[in-house]
Amino acid sequence: MTHYKSIGIIGGMGPAATWDLLKKIVEHTDAADDQHHIHTYIDCNVSIPDRTNAILYDAPSPLPSMIESGKKLEQMGAEILIMSCNTAYYYYDELSEALSVPMLNMPRETAKYLNYSGFQRVAVLATDGTVKSGIYTKELNALDIEAIYPKEEHQRLLMSLIYDGIKHGITTKKELPKAELLNILNDLKERGAEAFILACTELPIAFDLMEIDANTIDPTLILAKSAIRYAGAPLKDTPWYP
C-alpha cells in the first residue's frame, strides 16, 4: 500500500469546523477502503483563546496554545499541519516558524485557486478579526484579485450568525437568518462580487443548513483538497489547480 504523508489538524476553533474539515478530507480522498485513506491526527483544543478578540481587543493571544497543539501533533507523527479556523491564519508566520513540519495556509491556497479559476473580484464573508487583519486581502491582492466586504450593518449580522448561531450550537435552518443573508449576498453581487468566499469555517456549515444556492467558495474544502494532494493521496474530483 502507498504511504501517504500524515495530516495533523490544529482544531477546536471551533469543534464543528474541525469536524467539517476532517469530513471533507475523508469525502474527497479517492480511497478504495479504510487502509487507503490518510492517517489524520486531530487535537480538538477548545481551550485556544478566541482569535477575533485577541486581534481586535488585545485579549489573550491564541498563539501559545496553537503552538502547543502543533507540537503535540508533530510528536504524534503528523507530517503536514492545517488549521480549521480562517482567523487563526493571522498567526501563520509565527506559528509555522515555531514548528518543524510544513503548514498549509488556507487564505493563500484559496487565493491560488481563485486565480487559477479566473476570478477578478470576490466578496469575503468572515469574522471581524479576519476582516480587520487583512489576511485575505493580502493574499488576494498578491494575485491581482480585488476583495470587497459587507457593509457595517451586514457585517454585524454575519458575526451574529457565526457566534450566536453555529458556534452556539444551532443546527436547524428555521433558527438561522436566511432572508437577511440573501440580502447581504445580493448587495455584494450588485457591487461586483463574482463569488463569495466563506472565509469563516462556520459559514459553509450555515450555508449548507440554510440550503443557500450561491456562487460560494469554501476555503475549508480548498484546504482539505490541498492537504490531500500534499499528502500524496489521490483526489476523487480532479483536475485541481496546479
Q: Short description, anyone?
A:
This protein is of the alpha/beta class and 242 residues long. Helices cover 48% and strands 11% of the residues. The chain folds into 2 domains: 109 residues, Rossmann fold, CATH 3.40.50; 113 residues, Rossmann fold, CATH 3.40.50.
Count of DSSP E strands? 7
The total domain count is 2
Please give the radius of gyration in angstroms. Answer: 17 Å
Order of helices and strands: EHEHHEHHEHHEHHEHEH
Largest sheet: 4 strands, parallel
| Residue fraction in strands | 5-15%
Question: How would you describe the overall organization of this protein?
Answer:
With 242 residues, the chain is an alpha/beta fold. The protein has 2 domains: 7-104 and 221-231, Rossmann fold (3-Layer(aba) Sandwich), CATH 3.40.50.1860; 107-219, Rossmann fold (3-Layer(aba) Sandwich). The protein contains 11 helices and 7 strands. It has helices at residues 15-28, 51-57, 63-76, 92-98, 106-117, 128-133, 135-141, 152-166, 178-190, 203-210, 219-231; strands at residues 7-11, 40-44, 80-83, 121-125, 146-148, 196-198, 216-217. The strands form 2 sheets. Strands 5-4-6-7 form a 4-stranded parallel beta sheet, sandwiched between helices. Strand 1 (7-11), helix 1 (15-28) and strand 2 (40-44) form a beta-alpha-beta unit. Helix 1 crosses helix 11 (219-231), helix 5 packs parallel to helix 7 and helix 5 (106-117) packs across helix 11 (219-231). It is globular and about 50 Å long. The two termini are 25 Å apart. The model has no long low-confidence stretch (mean pLDDT 92).
